[in-house]
Write a structure and sequence with these properties.
Keywords: Isomerase. 44% of the residues lie in helices and 14% in strands. The protein is of the alpha/beta class. Among the domains are: 6-90 and 237-317, TIM Barrel (Alpha-Beta Barrel), CATH 3.20.20; 99-230, 2-Layer Sandwich (Maltooligosyl trehalose synthase, domain 2), CATH 3.30.1590.10; 351-502, no CATH class; 557-673. Strand 14, helix 10 (273-287) and strand 15 (295-297) form a beta-alpha-beta unit. Helix 13 (352-366) packs across helix 15, helix 21 (563-576) packs across helix 22 and helix 22 crosses helix 25 (661-691).
Length: 874
């Protein structure tokens, strides 16, 4: 069952399933058809997000348990609503309460769950054979042993356990011979004495795991993680038995109608995403054959990449739309000014693509060397099987492979035993071509001659029939395909986008490096393709993972309409506000410039620079963002080796701004200049999200203004009392210009959703037809029709003119509409077959007469965006 509109809710101990149930009536009144829940399966104690699952077979008691989930489903059903559930098949939390993981650590390769997790039981290090490398210690193993951080303990539930920093780990059967009482056995292994320490060391060495310093993870890890998070272990759901175990609860809830759809987290992390999607669809159909399964996948599409239609899913979770609508709002002429300004400011003349590749190189050499080395070892074994390739060394293979990894332009390939499809072949052709350039190799150079061999081994040709070669080819392809997704995510979203910041509104999940804008015709073409191929795809403009809120991005996008003034202002502050810090090079200009963008973009609506408490709260939030941004950039500091002096200098720069009234006033003045334009952009992307093909997804609370930053800031508590009050007291058409309280945005969402409910077929199956715009400001209008049978929906939004519209020059809360004097003869051109005598203005909730083409000033009378409906008879 395809939802009409979803609302994403973040569940945790502070907002449980019962708390969600208390808001069902609100979301029903807003017009939502399905609540889209963050993972509900049992997570590690204290989890704030639910992605650290420890038991796939139970609803988390911290959320209220299964009874609470059933009560929520019943309350939703009573309002004509349903539930969509986010599930996590890719990984589980590494935790003592994870029974599967505990059993693996206790029994090693003999564990019934040894195949559940993606563990290399025969790694390159012979001392790790049959063991799990556990990089969990705060210091080197020997230091922890000497300090007494490692101990033998006993508890009633588990018996004897080993403890590291108070976390328990199992004792393998047969490795501990109790000597007398429990007290006596513990005393014999007391690390405070040399003999006890030696016995404890011997006991630790006998286990099926090796405790190690956390810094050894990049070089020595021998199991797949989620990205580079050592607390999350990869799960092998490609195994049918493991698939069944992981999905038993979800399928039971789906069979009973408690859950009506699924969102798949990080599908690119799986060994076979397409095979997984097919298996899941078949399982859902088997338990509920009367309803077409609704499945969306978290898939980050690269520029011009298309979701494989063979997966037979409804679409993505919406990052592609978030990128497209964001790019649409940015004026293309700003690119030169912004790029040249950034180069002058930073002294870095490298292109965004070269900088992105530098981030990828950093990640494969310093963050994923163990994963890369395991793939190289597999390829080396493969090379030894053929006389034609047996001369290739591990060093040569690594050099060529690394170039391919740096150049790979998408999250992953989907080649299988048959080889690559046309889309995959095109991607890999580009990757290998760029790798050759990076290697700067010539014929006769080993790396040059190795590239076509790697191309064949990594999906370029079908798998051979020879069992030994086939097994190694399968392993190599799987390792390659499961290495490129975390490499892509960490290099782009979590490194490059924190380094390269000409305009931070384009540094968002789903965006391409260096991509600023998207032509309106291309935006509409992509929307039409989505309507044809994936009409059930989610359309998001905010998520629990976004880097900055949708209205932060909308406000910064308006700066591109006068990019020169924007850059001159911020670069001047970057220089002048650092001038009173003689002899200090910190923060670097790039870090100052990105901080100032963040202050302007995220400055809360209505915050006065004289509001000491409000400013302090805001500066605290920005300070948390600043520290995370600096460490993610991995230039002057990082998570592995923090440079606290540099971090302190950056924090001092921010505090100096907060302590200087003139600087706060300057920031507030710049915010005022962009507040109105940002509001118009925010309403434009909201209207587009609800009217183009797809299913609009509302992230909790974002029906009001969203000036959040990266997590955890984007997961703050929602003020439902204020939202309820706003919904009960919507602005009248003549009051929409008093926009600062957010009710205008909420009213827009509610009116769009009400129309979607009344015209379900139009939105589910209606085609999208771009409309011609004529007149003086035709380049500043985007207009299209949705058509289905006689039903018509006209949508009009302004583009790249928000700073020059009269409404943009007024103070916040006093916006006035742009009328005929501004729009002049600009008009929407309708074909005779689509021109009615009368229409209904959805936003004003009033009839409007139509006589010929539609003047834009008549469409944008009070609201800065327009949506009209009519029925075309005859």
């Amino acid at each position: 069952m395809t939802p009409r509109a979803t609302a994403r809710l973040q569940l945790h101990a502070g907002f449980t399933l019962a708390d969600a149930q208390a808001q069902v009536d609100y979301y029903a009144a807003l017009g939502i058809s399905h609540l889209y829940l963050s993972p509900v399966t049992r997570a590690r104690p204290g989890s704030t997000h639910g992605y650290d699952v420890i038991d796939h077979g139970a609803v988390d008691p911290a959320l209220g348990g299964e009874a609470a989930l059933r009560a929520l489903a019943q309350a939703a059903r009573a309002q004509g609503m349903g539930l969509v559930l986010d599930i996590v098949p890719n990984h589980m939390a590494v935790h003592a309460d994870n029974a599967w993981w505990w059993d693996v650590l206790r029994h090693g390769p003999a564990s019934a769950h040894a195949g559940t997790f993606d563990i290399d039981w025969r790694p390159a290090d012979p001392d790790l054979a049959g063991k799990v490398h556990l990089p969990v210690l705060g210091q080197a193993y020997g230091a922890c042993l000497a300090r007494g951080d490692l101990t033998l303990a006993h508890d009633d539930a588990r018996g004897y356990v080993l403890r590291a920093h108070d976390a328990p780990y199992p004792v393998a059967p047969g490795t501990l011979a109790p000597a007398g009482t429990v007290t006596e056995t513990l005393a014999r292994h007391d690390p405070s004495s040399p003999c006890g320490r030696a016995r404890l060391h011997a006991l630790l060495q006998a286990q099926h795991y090796r405790l190690a310093w956390w810094r050894t993870a990049p070089d020595q890890i021998n199991w797949r993680r989620f990205f580079e998070i050592t607390e999350l272990a990869g799960v092998r759901v490609e195994d049918p038995a493991i698939f069944d175990a992981v999905h038993s609860l979800v399928l039971r809830l789906y069979a009973e109608g408690i859950v009506e759809g699924l969102r798949i987290d990080h599908i690119d992390g799986l060994a076979d995403p397409g095979g997984y999607a097919h298996r899941l669809r078949e399982a859902m159909t088997r338990v509920r054959p009367d309803v077409p399964p609704y499945i969306v996948v978290e898939k980050i599409l690269a520029e011009d990449e298309i979701l494989p239609g063979t997966w037979r899913v409804a679409g993505t979770s919406g990052y592609d739309f978030m990128d497209q609508v964001g790019a649409l709002l940015h004026a293309p002429q700003a690119r030169t000014v912004l790029d040249e300004g950034w180069r002058a400011l930073t002294g870095d003349a490298r292109s965004p693509r070269v900088q992105w590749q530098a981030a990828r190189h950093r990640m494969i050499t310093r963050h994923f060397p163990a994963e890369r080395a395991a793939l190289v070892r597999c390829l080396l074994h493969l090379a030894r099987l053929d006389p034609c390739t047996q001369d290739w060394s591990a060093v040569a293979i690594d050099r060529a492979l690394s170039a391919v990894l740096v150049a790979f332009p998408v999250y992953r390939s989907y080649a299988d035993a048959r080889g690559r499809d046309a889309a995959d072949a095109a991607v890999c052709k580009q990757a290998w071509r760029d790798a050759r350039v990076l290697l700067d190799s010539r014929p006769g150079d080993p790396a040059h001659d190795l590239l076509p061999v790697l191309d064949a081994w990594l999906g370029g040709t079908p798998l051979p029939s020879d069992p030994a070669t086939r097994a190694l080819r399968e392993e190599a392809l799987r390792r390659f395909q499961q290495l490129t997704p975390p490499l892509a995510a960490k290099a782009l979203e979590d490194t490059h986008f924190y380094r390269h910041g000409p305009l931070l509104s384009r540094n968002e999940v789903g965006a391409a490096p260096g991509a600023l804008s998207l032509p309106p015709a291309r935006f509409l073409a992509l929307a039409r393709i989505r309507g044809q191929d994936f009409p059930g795809a989610l359309l998001a403009t905010a998520t629990h993972d976004h880097k900055r809120g949708e209205d932060v991005r909308a406000r910064l996008a308006s700066a591109t309409e006068d990019a020169a003034t924007w850059h001159d202002t911020l670069s001047g502050w970057t220089r002048d506000w650092h001038a009173d810090r003689p002899g200090k090079d910190a923060p670097l200009p790039a870090d100052r410039y990105m901080l100032l963008q963040t202050l302007v973009g995220a400055w809360p609506v209505g915050l006065s620079p004289d509001d000491a408490k409000g400013v302090a709260d805001f500066i605290g939030r920005v300070g948390a963002w600043q520290l995370k941004a600096l460490r993610e950039a991995k230039l002057r500091t990082d998570w592995y080796a923090p440079d606290t002096d540099y971090e302190a200098a950056c924090a001092a720069f921010l505090q100096a701004i907060a302590d200087t009234p003139a600087r706060l006033a300057a920031l507030s003045g710049q915010v005022d200049a962009l507040a109105g334009p940002g509001m118009i952009n925010g309403l434009s992307q909201t209207l587009l999200r609800h009217t183009v093909p797809g299913v609009p997804d509302l992230y909790q609370g974002r029906e009001s203004w969203d000036f959040s930053l990266v997590d955890p800031d984007n997961r703050r508590e929602v003020d439902y009392a204020a939202l309820r009050q706003g919904l009960a007291n919507p602005p009248a058409a003549t009051d929409v210009h008093a926009w600062t309280d957010g009710r205008i945005k909420q009213a827009l969402v509610q009116r769009c959703l009400a129309h979607r409910q009344s015209q379900a077929a139009l939105y589910a199956a209606g085609e999208l037809q771009p409309l011609a715009v004529a007149g003086t400001r035709s380049a500043n209008i985007l207009a299209f029709l949705r058509r289905h049978g006689p039903a018509r929906l006209l949508v009009v939004v302004p583009l790249h003119c928000t700073q020059t519209m009269p409404c943009a020059g007024a103070k916040p809360g006093q916006v006035t509409p742009a009328g005929a004097a501004y729009w002049g003869d600009t008009r929407i051109v309708l074909d005779d077959t689509d021109r009615p005598a009368q229409a209904w203005d959805i936003l004003h909730d009033a009839p409007v007469a139509i006589d010929g083409d539609l003047p834009v000033h008549a469409l944008l009378r009070e609201w800065p965006v327009a949506a009209w409906q009519w029925r075309q008879e005859g």
